[in-house]
Amino acid sequence: MATGIRAQNLREFRDGLLACHPGSIYHHFWGRLLQPQFDEPEYSNDFAAWVFHGLHEKALAERLSVVDPREYDDMEALRDELVERVELHLEEMEFIPWARADQQFHFMRSAIVVFDTGVEIQDPAQLADLVAHMSLGSVFYHFIDARRRTEHRCDDFCAWLGGMSDTYPELRRRIMTLDPYFSSLKELRFRLAELFREYFAGGET
Predict the structure, then answer these.
(1) Are strands 2-7 and 105-108 parallel, antiparallel or unpaired?
(2) Pfam families from the entry (predicted)?
């Protein structure tokens, strides 16, 4: 969804970061995972990609690309980090870089629409087969977006397993080692399914 905020130069980009809804920050870091990718993206978020391709500012693009959203408590803390890096770059520049008229950055937001698939399980061992057939949207919702919803900011699998006394601490530990940010959703689904298969094939508890 368009927010109506756009930028054509680096100063307008900084102002847009300050003014946009927190959901826009979230979208430009995580939403790209749901978009079709035909090759390996050079930069890890939309902000860094535009700074490089639109403004041709490689140094700043690299500074923005190494920002890992998982390291920040919320979107406001992440926003502050982005703004600080952009402002530091502005202070180092003699001229403000501009993008061409057809390469403006448009701050976007997204809305998640949730459907009940009707699929329910009682035994965690069923995860091994179930996860392998989950849609990519379900993988995103349960493994990534869940971190905004769950009490301990973890994925839905760990939250569910954590409610079963202390039966699956090792499985939860293994799940938490998976990196959701620098992987595609297909890769993440595969790694999750393999993790569950290996764990339950070994008869661990």
Answers:
(1) antiparallel
(2) DUF5752 (PF19027)
Determine the Cα–Cα distance for residues 155 and 134; give it in Å rounded to an integer: 15
Instruction: Please name the amino acid found at residue 126.
Output: Q
Contact by Cβ (8 Å): 59, 89 = yes
**Dist. CA 86–CA 68, nearest whole Å:** 16
Mean pLDDT for all residues in the chain: 92
Question: Which residues lie below 8 Å from residue 141, measured CB to CB, with a gap of 6+?
Answer: 112, 114, 156
100's CB contacts (< 8 A; 6+ apart) are 54
Question: Is pLDDT at 38 greater than 80 in this prediction?
Answer: no
Under the banding of pLDDT at 50, 70 and 90, the label for residue 73 is confident
CB environment 6-17: b (16+ within 10 A), e (fewer): ebbbbbbbbebb
Handedness of CA 36, 38, 43, 47 (dihedral sign): negative
**DSSP-derived 3-state class of residue 6:** strand
Task: Check whether 51 has a pLDDT greater than 80.
Answer: yes
> H-type helices in 35-135, by residue range?
46-53, 58-65, 75-92, 127-132
